[in-house]
């Protein structure tokens, strides 16, 4: 595998840009190919077999982009399809669940951890399993927050409706006295400030995106896949963005997350893969 190839990053929608942002910060010289499945978001309410089917289609598309590694920037896909994907491609595949579980287990003081995510992520129990492998004495309290994804995709990051929804979702976790909260969906860091205000300053928020980027950096270093060519690249050469629907809505959202002028996204007929 050529170390000058790009890193593939994909998500059910645009929330995975929070992971792409951390990858860009950790590995600023690397090329990125991002795919957001905006036509079929959200994944959290879909069946496990449907999620695996979607993931296989996206993987087939990323293969055409000659990527050297793939980041599954979707907690739901990481929960249901990660191992299958790893057996389907000859390049490293990094998910978001295990890195987040590892840092949460290290962060908690009272050994009471909350997990918020899509219905699929919560039902999978994967965060609970990984954390209990690290410390069986940690108690896990999970809450599905399905409305967060459409609210974030709508851009209602600071809206009073989003705050009211957050207060309802997070109330049971506050009652359980968690001191650490995993934001188990890539969309959630975009409303991190609001979540923090609702859950309270005494609760540490865990964003798996940062740890995922660090894990990717370790994997690329181990496999000698870090880009060694230091030739400067234009944004168009370094970053390519693809979506399955509504590319015209992508740019404003992406620039709000990535904080730089992004190239236009290209629509891909993902059902063809």
Describe the structure.
It is globular, with a radius of gyration of 18 Å. Strand 7, helix 9 and strand 8 (204-206) form a beta-alpha-beta unit. The mean pLDDT is 94. It is 45% helix and 16% strand. The longest helix has 16 residues, at 48-63. It is an alpha/beta fold and 273 residues long. The chain has twelve helices and ten strands. It has helices at 17-26, 48-63, 75-86, 97-107, 119-124, 126-134, 148-153, 160-175, 192-199, 208-222, 235-238, 250-258, and strands at residues 7-11, 32-36, 69-72, 93-94, 112-117, 139-144, 180-184, 204-206, 239-243, 266-267. The strands form two sheets. It has a six-stranded parallel beta sheet. Strands 6-5-7-8 form a four-stranded parallel beta sheet, sandwiched between helices. The chain folds into two domains: 7-95 and 210-272, Rossmann fold, CATH 3.40.50.1860; 97-208, 3-Layer(aba) Sandwich (Rossmann fold), CATH 3.40.50.
């Amino acid at each position: 595998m050529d170390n000058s190839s790009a890193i593939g990053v994909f998500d059910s929608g645009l929330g995975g840009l929070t992971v792409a942002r951390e990858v860009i910060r950790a590995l600023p010289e690397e090329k990125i190919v991002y795919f957001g499945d905006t036509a079929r978001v959200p994944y959290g309410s879909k069946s496990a077999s449907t999620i695996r089917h979607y993931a296989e289609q996206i993987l087939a598309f990323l293969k055409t982009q000659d990527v050297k590694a793939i980041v599954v920037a979707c907690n739901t896909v990481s929960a249901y399809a990660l191992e299958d994907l790893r057996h389907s491609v000859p390049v490293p595949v990094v998910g978001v669940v295990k890195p987040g579980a590892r840092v949460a287990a290290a962060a908690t003081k009272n050994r009471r951890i909350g997990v918020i995510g899509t219905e699929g992520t919560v039902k999978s129990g994967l965060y609970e399993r990984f954390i209990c492998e690290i410390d069986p004495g940690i108690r896990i309290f999970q809450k599905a927050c399905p409305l967060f994804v459409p609210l974030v995709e709508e851009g209602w990051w600071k809206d009073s409706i989003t705050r009211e929804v957050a207060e309802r979702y997070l109330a049971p976790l506050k009652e359980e006295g968690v001191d650490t909260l995993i934001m188990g969906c890539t969309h959630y860091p975009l409303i991190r400030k609001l979540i923090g205000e609702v859950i309270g300053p005494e609760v540490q928020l865990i964003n798996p995106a940062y740890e995922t980027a660090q894990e990717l950096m370790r994997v690329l270093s181990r496999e000698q896949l870090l880009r060694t060519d230091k030739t400067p690249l234009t944004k168009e050469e370094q970053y390519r963005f693809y979506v399955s629907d509504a590319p015209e809505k992508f740019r404003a959202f992406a620039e709000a997350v990535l904080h730089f002028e992004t190239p236009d996204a290209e629509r891909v007929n993902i059902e063809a893969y």
